[in-house]
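Journal club side-thread
Mid-discussion, someone asked how the predicted structure for our own chain would compare to the paper's figures. Pasting it here so we can look after the session.
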Amino acid sequence: MSKLAIAEAMIAAYNAQDVDTYVSYMTDDACEAGYRGAVVREGKEGTRSGLAAAFKVWPQNKAEIVHAQENGNYVVFREHVTRGPSTDGSPLVEPFDVIAVYTFEGDKCARVEFIR
């Protein structure tokens, strides 16, 4: 499976809100972070619990891949994200675009960084 195909499978799992499948593509110490910034979800377990909590608040959350590129150990997506109404009464989040950089170690994703 190419790194691009793995990252696409991660997005498919994300859109299905299947956190177990999503993290199965990650290294044990993988993380999600702001680009060159603070880690927002650390390790498989931190990512699993963080995404599960987000999906509970935004059950209609989806990310559409608008553009994809693979370069060595990196996959870069431009994603269009829609959240839909929240379950906790927080204000509606307008749809937004994000650049996501997936860094791989072998056939596992070690880090996802978001540029927003």
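Post-session note: The chain has three helices and six strands.
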